[in-house]
Design brief:
Radius of gyration: 14 Å
Largest sheet: 7 strands, mixed
Strand order of the largest sheet: 1-2-3-4-5-7-6
Number of domains: 1
Number of strands: 7
Strand content: 35-45%
Distance between the termini: 25 Å
CATH superfamily: Gcn5-related N-acetyltransferase (GNAT)
Shape: globular
Number of helices: 4
CATH architecture: 3-Layer(aba) Sandwich
Bound molecules: coenzyme A
Order of helices and strands: EHHEEEHEHEE
Length: about 140
């Protein structure tokens, strides 16, 4: 498995994953804004894009993972772990944040397994659930 920056040919696969995660209305603008900033990493296996991780570096002067998704048929093979390792190695800040809905037990388990600690939550979002924040200190 390889993790690398998104290339033009990856867009269809990434849009598919983003649409599943965010819905068709939000996926386009979301992907576009991260592509413009070169803040979109993909995991590739067997010459196919099997996952992506999007992030931003302007969130309270910290790095924030805005979305991560792995194709259903490639889960539990370390793709998310590899994507987080990659963003950790390129983060301009030693403060890495990530988040998930309080109902997403798989993602909560993943964050714990990857060494994140709980770091508060956000209420009053349109999604109707509390968004849990996670924090990890990474080597600068
Ligand atoms: C959450 C998600 C990104 C994890 O991707 P993944 O590639 O399967 O994760 P990894 O294989 O790297 O797992 C890393 C660790 O997280 C934990 N983990 C991941 N999936 C888990 C599950 N279903 N149940 C329990 N623990 C899990 C494990 O500790 C795992 O390590 P291990 O396999 O050595 O035990 C994937 O399930 C997904 O795309 N879900 C839908 C989108 C989503 O919810 N994104 C997060 C919110 S934006």
């Amino acid at each position: 498995m390889e993790v690398r920056q998104l290339e033009g040919g990856d867009l269809v696969a990434v849009m598919g994953l983003a649409t599943e995660l965010l819905g068709s209305e939000r996926a386009g603008p979301f992907v576009r804004s991260h592509v413009e900033r070169h803040h979109l990493l993909v995991a590739e296996a067997d010459t196919q894009v099997i996952g992506f991780l999007a992030f931003r570096t302007d969130w309270f002067q910290c790095t924030f993972v805005t979305a991560v998704a792995v194709r259903k048929d490639f889960r539990r093979r370390g793709a998310a772990r590899a994507l987080y390792r990659a963003v950790e190695s390129m983060s301009p800040s030693p403060r890495l944040f990530s988040s998930t809905e309080e109902t997403n037990s798989t993602s909560i388990r993943m964050h714990t397994a990857l060494g994140f600690a709980p770091s508060g939550h956000i209420d009053n979002l349109p999604q109707g659930y509390r968004e849990l924040l996670f924090y990890k200190r990474v080597a600068p």
